[in-house]
Amino acid sequence: MKLKQILATVFISALTTTAIIWGYGRWVKNEHVYAGQQPGVLPSNYRLAANEDGAPNNPGSVDFTASSQAAIPAVVHIKTKTNAKQVTNNLPSPRNNPFSDFFDDDLFEQFFGGRRMNIIPEQRASGSGVIISADGYIVTNNHVIQKADEITVTLSNKKTFKATVVGADPAYDLAVIKVEASGLPYLLYGNSDDVKIGQWVLAIGYPLNLETTVTAGIVSAKARSIGLNRDRSGNTVNAVESFIQTDAAVNMGNSGGALINTDGKLIGINSAIASPTGYYSGYSYAIPVNIAKKVVDDLIKFGTVQRGYMGIQFANAADLTEERKKTEGIPSSAYDGIYAVEVPKDGGAYAAGIRRGDRIQKINGVNVNSGGELQDQISRYKPGDKVSVTVVRNDKPFTYTVMLKNKAGTYDLVKTESQAEMLGAELTELDRNKAADYGVKGGVVVKKINEGVLNDQTRMKDGFIILRINNQEVKNVAELNKALADQKTVNITGFYPGYDGLYEYMINLGD
Question: pTM above 0.85?
């Protein structure tokens, strides 16, 4: 009897314990399952980047030693010097000034502040650059070497060279310089198309005049457009921006330096920071290497970028108001994507069949969802190239083949920047009727002065009419270009409509 009672007690205890354990396990399991999530089910976004067991497919410990050691010797310190310059201040004197009858021109200018010379002091700056070939080609930002009269390159081993400018383009903010050397270390190109948000990257350069500095971060966004770049006319319309955004610390002096992946390959050229103070505040921006490669190759081969244009003006739907969408013929329900808001009839897009209001979906089969991504793709092609463009119209996809043109509207490759373009101004031929009214044979009107030699070295104002270059008469832009060819020091003579006398501006075009 006692044995039966003992066995019964053991059985009941075991059964009770098992029930309690089972019940507790069920309670705990239910306690930690959140609404909308099923245990054991892996969301699709995790399946793409996970192992079979659902664990993130990340490498083990991250070590940047090897990639840093490979890249540091190929990143250089660039120092620039801009010589002191005399700037003419030829302020026009109003016609029929009552005092002009009492003084000759020289005395009038002396007393009333006409022509005088101002001095811009010598300026020095520094940045970074990336060696891309063993024979001394170096890529950097245009703003690092712009206006410099002297460029010095220092390697990580302290060896120093003088550098010359091969070519530059402010629309991309890229430049190529060269030093006379051989057997130099250089960085291998990576593929910026393969860059993923969240991946580790390293920024290498010479910030704040320090020695070689390496910082690490992750890619936080792609195809960013921040409205920073300008073309030679000072406009943002033709500027190209499709930045890789990172949180790697970048400061003044990092410009032109390398953004590399953990394999030590170049994936971007550090170009800008987002900062209210001028110092690093959380985000930095790099030009993707796939854009840089095309620009560098063109500058080395042609001296200028061979850039193709589709012939459209576009806008991101997210940036348009309801009223603007209605005006542009864009569905009011559109909240993302790129839309063609202007399609000039003389452009390649119109000839191919693209129309105002079309949503641009793909370029050569690559999805584009923002203006930055569109510019990234088109910037890889030159005038005369054909690209496949897929658009959506009335909810239906259409694919067109667009032959890209150059900025002048032809399919020809463009020549090296002319001397007239270096002036940094919008120039046009003086109207014949106005020339007759002014009593001159012809001339070139300076419609608008932007960034360039005239802005840097003179006080010339918009509306000035150029009559002579180094005493050689010029009646149109073609003659102006011819007169400027191979000139270093140039004397520009002309007048301001409505003002007495001729005015002269001395400029230096350098080499």
Answer: no
